[in-house]
Every structure is written in C-alpha cells, then in structure tokens.
Amino acid sequence: MNQITDEEILQLFQDKKTQSEAFSLLVKKYQERLYWQIRKIVLSHDDADDVLQNTFVKIWKGLLNFRYDAKLFTWMYRIATNESLTFLKDKQRRSIAFANKDVEEMLIANLEADEYFDGDQAQIELQKAILQLPEKQRLVFNMKYFDEMKYEDMSEILETSVGALKASYHHAVKKIESLLKLEC
Question: What is the three-class DSSP state of 170?
C-alpha cells in the first residue's frame, strides 16, 4: 500500500466530506508510535490507552487550526507528551493510596504490576533507573535513547534549546549509569 503523506492527510482533513477518512488515516499512521511514547511516560498499558484516546481527541479538535509551523508528527508528539504528564499529575493528585508516595514510586509499582510488561529483570532495573530521573531528563532520555529522535525535533516538542537537551541527555545517561552500578 502506498504510504499517504502528512500533507495529503491534512489536505483531506480540510474538506468536511473527507475529514473522518483523513482522521482515520492519521490514527492508523501514528497510533502505535504515539502509544509507545505515552507508554514510556505512564508505563501502564491501560493508562496509556486512556491517554492515547485523550491525545487523539485533542488532535481532532486542533487539526483545523494546525499552523504548519511544525511537522505534524512533532505537533502530535507534543500533545501526547503533555497529555501524559497531565495524566500523571492528575493521577497523583487524585490518588489517596499514593498520597505519601512520589510519582516515581507510583510508576515503579505500576510497572511491576503491569501484566502487559514483558521485560526481563535488566529492563525492569533500567526502567526503575529512568524513573528516578527528573521529569525533563526522563523525557529527553526516552526520546533520544528509545525513539532515536533528533535533538532538533526534541527541541520543537519540548520547546527548549538543542544545547540544553544535549546536556539533559548527558546528565541522564550519567545518572542512569550510576544508579545501575548501585544495583549490581
């Protein structure tokens, strides 16, 4: 099947008659990539599904006003990241059971209890180390290490300089290395 371009999808979306078809094409093209971005932040499969739905609702509402000053995927990735972070903050605020725990402990507990996580012990230790990073370093590390995203694209998504991102990634790698050495 010939892969449809983002420009073609956006063009279809501008016509009321083909909006639904265009959005369906957009979902098919990007839902897996966005799911895994969200999953790396919220860790739980069920939570990732919920956040992905919210993300696509926001994308639907915002597509008519898309300004083309960013790549479509970068714009959607930013929405997915922001929705994920908002979800975690709301979950922490609402959760009485985790009132005395911080977000990292809550996420580690979710990861260990997640029936869909099929990683081995080394992957669990890596995820635990990543979860101990400050939020921005965690995002930068996940985008660079797992998604192999270019710093320029990350700069658009996180709205920060390439230099700051490189520094954040460097610090994240050093912290993870040191945390994993402690585990050994």
Answer: helix
Q: Please choose, from the candidates 125, 154, 160, the residue with its C-alpha nearest in 3D space to the C-alpha of residue 141.
A: 154
157: closest CA among 55, 86, 72, 89?
72
The maximal CA–CA distance of the chain, rounded, in angstroms, is 59
Is 161:140 a contact under the CB 8 Å cutoff?
no
Q: What is the pTM of this model?
A: 0.71
Which CATH entry fits the domain spanning 1-114: 1.20.120.350, 3.40.50.2020, 3.40.50.300, 1.10.1740.10? Answer: 1.10.1740.10
Report CA-CA distances (Å) from 3 to 7, 24, 45, 63, 82: 12, 14, 28, 20, 28
3-state helix, strand, coil in the chain (%, to 5): 75, 0, 25
pLDDT digits (tens, 9 = 90+) for 155-176: 988 889 999 999 999 999 999 9
Lookup: tokens for 40: 């790396």
